[in-house]
Fold DoxX family protein.
Amino acid sequence: MISRRVVQTLLGLVWLIDGLLQLKPQMFTSAFLKQVILPTGEGEPHWVTAVVNWGASLTAPHIAMWNTLFALVQILIGLALIVNFKLRSTITASVVWSLTVWVFGEGFGQLFTGQSLLLTGAPGAVLIYALIGVAIWPDSRQKSEWKPGGIRFARFSLAGLFLLGAVLHLQGAYLTGEGLSQAVAWPWLSKVIAMNGTVASLVFAAIELVLSVFLAFRIRIRATVWVSMVLSFLFWWAGQAFGQVFDPLATDFNSGLLMIILAMAAYPHLIDNKELPGLRSRKALV
């Protein structure tokens, strides 16, 4: 069984590394705003663009100070999760921070551009941080064990993400021959997909829809979660290039890795067939 503590530690490590990535020299310059933040508002509805631009204008005069604060917040959240320090307060802070970054730093995951996909990182990695945070909320009676409600939340969250992914594949941009190929990070794979872009998009939509339904109704849940993890890894590799973390302006691992961690929370007894303590009597809740 994958313990709640393991998932908590993984989330903490991701937060910590994100904070360290924020300390790269380029992050303390206007390039961070011009090349990372402001582009998330492009192609969005006016109100989204206005929100992103407002946040950028607020930080621009003192970018070094704000970026130091951003890095410290993420490092502290990561360390607190890893060492299990004031866990409930830490998770609350992480969820609030995640939603703040999702709005002002990711432009609501660029969901309104007509070009977002799970393949490319929708609905925004930082939103998934918040979902995992809620899922690992500790049980006051057994702090090391999962709460059935947390598992259920993770499972429905993962189902919702795949349902969203299926819908996003039906956007006009991806019902053309070359549409989907432009979302792939590797040139050779892009050429292969370009030959049957529309078919590939519809196939992915169907797969993601099936995963969503199977997760929501606990159909072949063990196999479904494994497939979801494999698909998330493929997205992380093919569309997100592992977050391009070695790029001077990369800020995180992107969403593929976080969807894998969320899948662990959605079915923590993935490694074996043993039920969680106390879960047999409450299966209906999960």
